[in-house]
């Protein structure tokens, strides 16, 4: 197609509205594209839209909960499109198959996978748009496309003077066809990737204009609060509905699957009425156990069942027989809540044959399943509008809050916002599982000759598959949902992915040893669980790296040098270990009254080593300094990497110092930040993050800062006090 400038201007001026350039990417074949004559628009596809008004929209398929996807993924598009990231407007994706995470086959944000799974597809999207725009301009100018360039939203003529805006070219560009592979910019030409750019969501969050789920307001909206059974598995037997209904502003009192909802015209009226609600509970199928009984169950299971072998090399039993020294240890970690600063909430509006949801969810497609369960609708009838998330940490991967909002709106026929209180959020969370670890190792002449790790506890998929399996088959009728979940568990590791939540990080043991045995004893006491920031890596990291410190002490060797010697064939592990030790001045004496501990862990493909310097002051543990080295492959934005590693460190320290959910007669004992503490600002240590300059494929950064800091702190306390702590949270002793 050859077009002179006069014809080009006729075409550009002859359509109404905005014109959009639509790109189809691999895995998005379900998106229909085509020019819309009635509107003058190209139907947007999964990722990128360019309009005649020079607007650039990027559909963000991963949610933003503080981890930086809003900025990082937009940067990938911007780099290849040759515009500043600030020139692109991100918008959150609806629930649709095109936006599924390719690793999980579900539309979820988790596992620190956002950049890793988007690295190539989004760059291809931006590069394809750039190439199509250049081809269109070259036809207008009758020049070679290879001689044109792109700069700041313009295609520039080979003469370096003339140019055309993207908006002038979108309709013509949409007719171009790229044959062969699109050219991605080499690293040497990058302007934005690898640079310390600002966050695109910073202004909106600083000015209060960013819309979180809890901010949603709709015409005629009602508010609902839910009273849930104090023991998991309890059901409402009776309640004083009529007495509560006559209170000011109360619209209805409704029993739903998980409890009793009070619906009112204002939130605080709903809360006031809730205080008058009296529910008689049926606890015939409810939990009645205590935390002590949970660990008694674990120990009994470990004694009776050695578990499934997850990794076996050499002959551990023979190594033990021939070793002069065998060390054994048991480590225990409690249930942990998520404590997101924005409590669980969702807004739902049921209208006869459809339901619209506004929610801070990490998994919109699972939200569709949850809403469909609570109504007479199919998932296709449910629209999910994802908002900013005030913290996620895996909690918002489970959609109970959406299910509650859908159920109440379905019963009232009105738009309803359900908000959990902090107490409800703490006592009805789905927790990071409590876990038990039994470790054995053999030493001969100071050399590690055998390693045995028995992980004892539940698997998260057992709890998550309820909605995850139907989300993979949204066409299935609802009566099949539970069957799909059961089938998913039966075929785990065969037709469905293996659940690694209990053993991740344990099976990846990197140290050189000839005889390894790693087993998982699966036992589940029935306490609801879900994903938590760094999941299994968090509890396995504590067990593995604390035990490694114990082995170094037994061998009479410096814990840094002991690890270093066993990592001779692991260059990326070794690199971060050495960097962290240098940052922390490991070879220099530690200040009086302090101890120094080191730990190393690889999670989500990212290598992190940390050195913690801590002391005990006024009867409390005080963390003074954390030195961290990280290798996460190619870095998109170093500032965000630093923020995320530091955030993970503070999250992990909070768990190490204060994190503990306890049960008594089946009831959670903690309720708010006074008894489930977060680290305060004045307690924050000095944190230094050193990032390895790497050209390897990018890996995750949202979670890998958590696992090493917990054992590093425990190891520092041992160095200070000489007392080893094998259970969490850590205590000020010695």
Automatic annotation (TrEMBL):
Pfam families: MoCoBD_1, MoCoBD_2
Official protein name in the record: Xanthine dehydrogenase family protein molybdopterin-binding subunit
Span of domain Aldehyde oxidase/xanthine dehydrogenase a/b hammerhead: 207-285
PROSITE patterns: TAT
InterPro entries documented for this protein: Ald_Oxase/Xan_DH_a/b, AldOxase/xan_DH_MoCoBD1, AldOxase/xan_DH_MoCoBD2, AldOxase/xan_DH_Mopterin-bd_sf, N-heterocyclic_Hydroxylase, OxRdtase_Mopterin-bd_su_IorB, TAT_signal
């Amino acid at each position: 197609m050859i077009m002179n400038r006069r014809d080009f201007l006729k075409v550009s001026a002859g359509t109404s509205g905005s014109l959009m350039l639509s790109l189809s990417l691999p895995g998005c074949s379900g998106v229909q594209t085509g020019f819309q004559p009635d509107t003058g628009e190209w139907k947007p596809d999964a990722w990128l839209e360019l309009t005649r008004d020079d607007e650039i929209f990027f559909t963000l398929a991963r949610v933003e909960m503080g981890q930086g996807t809003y900025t990082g993924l937009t940067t990938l598009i911007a780099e290849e499109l040759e515009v500043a990231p600030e020139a692109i407007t991100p918008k959150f994706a609806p629930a649709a198959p095109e936006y599924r995470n390719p690793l999980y086959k579900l539309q979820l944000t988790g596992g620190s996978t956002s950049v890793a799974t988007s690295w190539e597809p989004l760059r291809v999207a931006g590069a394809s748009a750039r190439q199509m725009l250049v081809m269109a301009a070259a036809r207008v100018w009758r020049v070679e496309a290879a001689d044109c360039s792109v700069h700041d939203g313009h295609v520039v003529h080979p003469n370096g003077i003339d140019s055309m805006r993207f908006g002038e070219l979108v309709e013509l560009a949409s007719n171009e066809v790229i044959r062969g592979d699109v050219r991605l910019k080499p690293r040497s030409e990058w302007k934005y990737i690898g640079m310390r750019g600002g966050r695109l969501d910073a202004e909106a969050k600083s000015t209060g204009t960013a819309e979180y789920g809890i901010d949603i307001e709709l015409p005629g909206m009602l508010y609902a609060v839910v009273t849930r059974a104090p023991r998991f598995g309890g059901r409402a037997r009776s309640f004083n509905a009529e007495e509560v209904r006559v209170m000011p502003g109360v619209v209805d009192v409704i029993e739903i699957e998980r409890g009793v909802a009070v619906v009112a015209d204002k939130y605080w009226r709903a809360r006031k009425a809730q205080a008058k609600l009296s529910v008689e509970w049926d606890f015939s199928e409810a939990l009645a156990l205590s935390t002590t009984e949970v660990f008694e169950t674990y120990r009994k299971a470990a004694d009776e069942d050695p578990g499934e072998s997850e990794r076996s090399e050499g002959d551990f039993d023979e190594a033990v027989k021939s070793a002069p020294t065998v060390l054994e240890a048991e480590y225990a970690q409690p249930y942990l809540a998520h404590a997101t600063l924005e409590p669980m909430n969702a807004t739902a509006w049921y209208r006869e044959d459809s339901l619209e949801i506004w929610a801070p969810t990490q998994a919109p497609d699972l939200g569709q399943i949850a809403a469909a369960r609570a109504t007479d609708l199919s998932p296709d009838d449910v629209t999910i509008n994802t908002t900013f998330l005030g913290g996620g940490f895996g909690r918002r991967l489970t959609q109970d809050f959406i299910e509650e909002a859908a159920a109440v709106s379905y019963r009232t026929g009105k738009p309803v916002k359900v908000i959990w209180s902090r107490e409800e959020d703490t006592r009805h969370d789905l927790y990071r599982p409590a876990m038990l670890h039994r470790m054995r190792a053999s030493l001969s002449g100071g050399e590690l000759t055998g390693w045995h790790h028995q992980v004892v506890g539940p698997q998260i998929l057992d709890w998550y598959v309820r909605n995850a399996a139907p989300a993979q088959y949204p066409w299935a009728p609802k009566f099949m949902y539970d069957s799909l979940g059961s089938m998913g568990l039966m075929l785990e590791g065969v037709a469905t992915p293996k659940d690694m939540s209990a053993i991740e990080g344990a099976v990846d043991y990197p140290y050189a040893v000839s005889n390894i045995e790693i087993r998982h004893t699966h036992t589940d006491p029935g306490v609801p669980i879900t994903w938590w920031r760094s999941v299994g890596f968090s509890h396995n990291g504590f067990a593995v790296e604390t035990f490694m410190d114990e082995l170094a002490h037994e061998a009479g060797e410096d814990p840094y040098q002991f690890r270093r010697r066993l990592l001779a064939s692991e260059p990326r592990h070794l690199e971060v270990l050495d960097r962290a030790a240098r940052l922390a001045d490991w070879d220099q004496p530690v200040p009086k009254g302090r101890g120094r501990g080191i730990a190393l862990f690889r999670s989500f493909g990212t290598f992190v080593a940390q050195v913690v310097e801590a002391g005990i002051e006024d009867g409390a543990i005080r963390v003074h300094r954390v030195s961290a080295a990280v290798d996460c492959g190619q870095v998109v934005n170093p500032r965000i990497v630093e923020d995320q590693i530091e955030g993970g460190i503070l999250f992990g320290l909070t768990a190490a110092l204060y994190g503990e959910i306890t049960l008594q007669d089946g009831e959670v004992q903690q309720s708010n930040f006074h008894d489930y503490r977060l680290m305060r600002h004045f307690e924050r240590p000095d944190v230094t993050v050193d990032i390895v300059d790497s050209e390897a494929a990018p890996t995750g950064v949202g979670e890998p800062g958590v696992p090493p800091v917990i054992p590093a702190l425990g190891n520092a306390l041992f160095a200070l006090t000489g007392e080893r702590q094998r259970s969490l949270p850590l205590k000020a002793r010695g």
